[in-house]
Here is the input.
Amino acid sequence: MSLFPAATRRSFLLASVALGVTATMRLPAFAATATRGGTATLLLAAEPPVLTTIAHTAYNAVYVSPKTTEGLLTYDFELNPKPLLAEEWTVSPDGLTYTFKLRGAVKWHDGQPFTSADVAFSIKTLKEVHPRGRNTFLNLVDIETPDALTAILKLSKPAPYLITALAASETPIVPRHIYEGTKVAENPANLAPIGTGPFKFKEWVRGSHIVYERNPDYWDQPRPYLDQLIIRFVPDAAARSIAIETGEIDLAPSTPVPLSDLERLQAVEGLAFETKGYQYQNGVSRIEFNLERPLFKDVRVRRAFAHVIDRNVILNTINYGYGAAIPGPINPNLAKWYVPDLKTYPIDLAAAEKLLDEAGYPRGADGIRARINLDYVPSGETYPRGSEYIRQALAKVGIDATVRSQDFATYTKRIYTDRDFDFAFEGMSNLFDPTVGVQRLYWSKNFKPGVPFSNGAAYSNPKVDELLEAAAIEVDPTKRVEQWRQIQQLLVEDVPAIDIVSQPEVTIYNKRISDHTIGGEGIAGSLAYAYVAAS
Here is the structure.
């Protein structure tokens, strides 16, 4: 358990740049002793459906997109912003104008120059098609580009989270000349990206691996240090553990092995463990109901499920005690917004049976009240194992749940496009601010079939909408915290989802790779600073 100390209460950064103050910072020289050359192999448990995050937030896509496609800013471990494609930035005192001075002499991988027109196009596109973009840029009314290296964002109302929302994985800047005039979500560049980043896309062998090569024209010379980066997909948990243990894998983020293997792997010579680099994600696991299904339209059914599914069993048995049981949608690491004393539904099978009877779902002659499907996100072993526990627990009150497995692309299409599901066991990221990471899951205006990782429940509550929209523009930190407390209190009454545990996150890495985790984005950053240490 030593890898995961109890969550500490720490202040969360609402606005990293003082309003009206110019920020001009440079990344420290992490790799002063770095040498050029070599290959690093990064492991993912599931294959991402796309290689850029301009229109997608599939969890594993965040690990590949920033290798080629950069953002305006990057962030340290305290989520203070640092320069990337933007060298300087100012925020007006009223919080309505963000001015970015862009880095000069940056080229896209196809040789075209990077300009403010690319920034304007990308951010406008994110607002339209990105699952979180409509939240993040809700108050954006215009982007001015007075010259090739200046982009000015104009807002109708303040957005206190915006300066922290500009990382490569969250707000990628893509080439206008490649995407303009196309259906962005279907553009071939999503599968063969062209960016400004340290690595160039070479090949994607479906079901096996992606190969990236060093960008010799990268603006931040002499980086990147690696000549090649390989991303391998290993869906089998036992095979992942073996590949890591035998040295086939150099970087394995997001706790890619069964939690039961962690203690054994800590004893393997040459392996090391890093728990930093997840400050930008703050993942939780949750059960989401499809409120378009007649069964789950009735809140009594959802509350009955909450009386049956024991999050502590999942924490202690499925997660081996790693992480923390959570009563609501927010990870304890986001201490400012976390509410530990929310209403919960005690495990009470009799109460559950009574609610199901009242909702009009009595037991049949065979003892079954309803037959439904349970889909789980195919990422790691906690979800299939947790789903099996959920199935067994519900059987005690007459709910016959069939657990369905599928690959990531099929799962995403089933849940968000086809709407062919009853309820799902899934992981979601709170990200760096609940307006960005949590609002998307419950805001009625964010329900749009085909847009993944948004309001999959099709949940709608006008009071919750009102509070979400108010908190998104509230500049008084105290008022904003109180608004989020009220939101969470309403959500646990309505139960559109059952929040389970905060996810333990650890990167397992080969000690021969240095400077892979240099800020809050961790392995989901560009890896421009990573290098193979001299033997």
